[in-house]
Design brief:
By secondary structure, this protein is of the alpha+beta class. It has 24 helices and 32 strands.
């Protein structure tokens, strides 16, 4: 009986053993099948990832140059700091590392510690785009702390650098943390500027340390294309400075402007002020805006308001914003009327001070009326009633045809992102929706919206013998060796009016600057054609105005077109003649002199004529001083040397008659500086004598020689230190009653 029981137990044990072996074998087979077949590919990739390191090699973004090949935006070497939490041995090491890393990288300690404790992760980037000095501190940390090199690493990276900070900021734009263009040219040309990333594949051992093997492979990154712009750094500086000064002195919300090459459409300068620092684009540049943001206590509301303020700061308002152009548009109405033969420059009209269309009375700038005047004089006087009559003669259909022919019903096609697109029936009236009232208000630039680039391009067509060109800002695309990949060729979109009509309107615009509302745009020695405009902003509940000027020079053979817009000036006057025209005079004068366009002075301008500085370098100090003094110059000698080693201004530079020339007699010129005195509120002779006493020259703009009024602004603020012999532009302004009430299209 006992034997039978033992036998049964033995049989059961044997069966259990067999079942265990079968089950174990089955599990093993299943595991092999699962590993090899079902999850084979996944496990293979995992094994490879543990055996191979595959890192991205950042591509260098293309460089942006100005027209003279000065670097405006460039990618420079930077570094990426990363950690491998799996290799951090314990929490104590993690805390010590987090303390050091947060201090060096300017990061929150708790955030860094949290990353260090993520043991399931092998690669966490703590900070990208760090500079060389920071990289050195990290290398020192790795060297001085045993074992840190196992979990703390450095990789090559690139960062975007803008050498001139605010220079043309709304045009150039900036890149984000991923090196992608966020605004401006950086965004519009992002695809071409962005290169192709490379790869660096290396073998690694079980501890993820690199080892040499046959698997190593390196695929170099390809640098993006570079851009050479049409922007000229000198002309851009003139425009930026003049607009910035105008916004400050006129207490305006914004100021924006464009300088365009008449014949090609190349943009020589484009500015929106206030601007911002491209190297710190998320910093609010307007002090009043920052002050208002700081008052918001709710975090969500402040974040939302800050985002809105930043987008407003980054906007290139010359292409994104629209406004009513006001009386600048009268040049378009005049061109259409003359081309169609419905009016002649010498045709006589009578202005009674107002003009009635249906139930609406449109007022002239002079409500008493200008009386009898010819068509040219009506442009000088900016007389609304006359332009309503010309538009009525044209009729809605022809008027609309010219509106669109001058490019105001379409985008200009400029190679920048976010150009405002006209909307028929919304931003302007189409012929089928333009009744007598709409035609009347449109004739003098009211009741429709256009962008500054549209108006500048339209007026440029008058300067360019009636040909409408497409504006552009990228002249060439280059590879990293400087080889030309593509060239932008000027594009004529259409012939809008005949050369004869364009010449006729040009002469009318010359008279506007000589004797009309744009007199403050006068630049001595140059014939300027232009027109001012004043319009009330439709988008605000308060009475806010925009003053503008658009014109070109020299009128007889135009080289540049210029538009200046002062948005919401608050220091009294708001008319284009007083706000924008003086700024235009400064920009036009500086630009023409920079382009070496010789001035041609008229008889009444002889007293304001600039002269070229003679060369005296190499002469004895005594001989140079005697020669310059005999020619009427005021001479300042720096040093006690016997020969002139350098002079300022340099030879050939234009300075006012009897101006200041500084002679340096030492081998190494240490530039002498002086403080700019207050040159406002002075007559021409007073401004000159005050500047001369300080060792400075003055450039007079905005008047003719017989002007007896006082200066109202200067290009360099009082108290600013500049080189001895520098030139300060001093602007004078005509302040007649008619200019003060220049038309705003008032109707009742």
């Amino acid at each position: 009986m006992a034997r039978k029981t033992d036998k049964k137990l033995q049989d059961r044990a044997y069966i259990a053993m067999i079942l265990t072996l079968i089950l174990g074998f089955g599990i093993g087979v299943f595991g092999m099948i699962n590993t090899g077949l079902i999850h084979g590919e996944e496990n293979r990739r995992k094994a490879e990832s543990e055996q191979l390191s595959d890192t991205v090699v950042a591509a260098r973004r293309g460089t942006i140059y100005d027209s003279n090949m000065n670097i405006l935006a460039q990618s420079t070497d930077a570094w990426k700091i990363f950690i491998n939490p799996k290799e951090i041995p314990d929490e104590s090491t993690a805390k010590r590392a987090a303390s050091s890393l947060s201090a060096i990288l300017d990061l929150d300690y708790d955030d860094v510690l949290a990353d260090c404790l993520k043991k399931e992760r092998k690669y966490i980037v703590l900070k990208s785009k760090v500079d060389y000095s920071t990289k050195q501190l990290i290398e020192k940390l790795r060297t001085e702390n045993k074992g840190y090199n196992r979990f703390l690493g450095i990789e090559d990276d690139v960062t975007r650098f803008y050498p001139y900070d605010n220079f043309a900021s709304t045009v150039i734009g900036f890149t984000g943390s991923s090196d992608k263009g966020m605004s401006g040219l950086e965004s519009a040309y992002n695809t071409k500027l962005t290169g192709l990333t490379g790869r660096n594949i290396t073998a690694q051992n079980a501890k993820q340390r690199q080892i040499s093997s046959d698997f190593d492979a390196f695929y170099a990154a390809q640098e993006g294309a570079s851009l050479q712009l049409t922007i000229d750094n000198a002309i851009q500086y003139y425009l930026d400075s003049a607009l910035s000064h105008a916004v400050e002195t006129q207490n305006a919300t914004y100021g924006y402007g464009i300088v365009m090459d008449v014949k090609t459409g190349a943009i020589l300068a484009m500015s929106s002020q206030p601007d911002y620092d491209l190297n710190d684009p998320y910093k609010i540049s307007k002090a009043d805006v920052k002050e208002e943001l700081d008052k918001i206590t709710n975090d969500d509301e402040r974040a939302k308001a800050t985002t809105s303020a930043l987008f407003a700061q980054w906007r290139n308002r010359t292409i994104t914003d629209t406004y009513e152009p006001g009386s600048v548009f009268k040049c378009i109405t005049a061109a259409a009327g003359i081309e169609e033969g419905v009016v002649k420059p010498d045709e006589m009209f009578v202005c009674a001070g107002s003009y009635r269309v249906k139930d609406i009375t449109y007022h002239c700038s002079n409500r008493r009326g200008h009386g009898s005047e010819d068509f040219t004089t009506s442009l000088m006087n900016s007389c609304n009633p006359i332009y309503i009559q010309v538009a009525q003669r044209l009729g809605s259909e022809k008027f609309s045809n010219y509106f669109e022919a001058f490019g105001l019903g379409e985008t200009t096609g400029i190679d920048l992102a976010a150009e405002a697109a006209p909307k028929p029936g919304v931003t302007y009236y189409t012929a089928d929706r333009m009744g007598p009232v709409e035609l009347a208000s449109s004739s003098f630039g009211q009741s429709f919206q256009v962008s500054p680039i549209q108006i500048c391009t339209a007026i440029n067509a008058i300067a360019n013998d009636g040909k409408l060109v497409q504006p552009y800002i990228v002249a060439r695309e280059l590879d990293k060796e400087g080889n030309v990949l593509s060239v932008t060729k000027p594009t004529v979109r259409r012939q809008v009016v005949s050369k004869l009509t364009a010449d006729t309107v040009t002469q009318m615009m010359v008279e506007v600057v000589r004797n009309g509302t744009a007199k403050n745009a006068t630049v001595n020695g140059y014939k300027i054609a232009g027109k001012t405009g004043t319009s009330e902003k439709l988008t605000t509940s308060t009475e806010d105005y925009i003053g503008s000027f658009c014109g070109f020079a020299p009128a007889d053979d135009p080289e540049i077109s210029v538009i200046i817009i002062i948005d919401d000036p608050k220091n009294g006057s708001f008319t284009g003649g007083k706000t924008a025209a003086p700024v235009a005079a400064e920009v036009i004068g500086n630009t023409l002199r920079y382009l070496n366009i010789e001035p041609e002075y008229e008889v009444d301008e002889k007293g304001l004529q600039d002269v070229k500085t003679p060369s005296v370098v190499g002469l004895s100090t005594a001989a140079a001083q005697e020669s310059l003094t005999a020619s009427g110059y005021t001479v300042r000698v720096i040093g006690d040397g016997e020969k002139v080693k350098a002079q300022f201004p340099e030879a050939g530079k234009l300075i006012p008659q009897n101006g200041v020339v500084v002679l340096y007699t030492k081998s190494t010129k240490a530039t002498e500086t002086v403080e700019v005195p207050n040159l406002t509120g002075l007559t021409v002779s007073q401004a000159r004598s005050t500047a001369k006493a300080a060792g400075l020259n003055v450039e007079i703009v905005g008047i003719s020689n017989d002007f007896t009024g006082a200066s109202y602004t200067q290009s360099i603020s009082k108290g600013t230190k500049v080189a001895l012999g520098s030139t300060v532009t001093v602007a004078y302004m005509t302040t007649t009653t008619e200019m003060e009430i220049e038309d705003t299209g008032n109707a009742d």
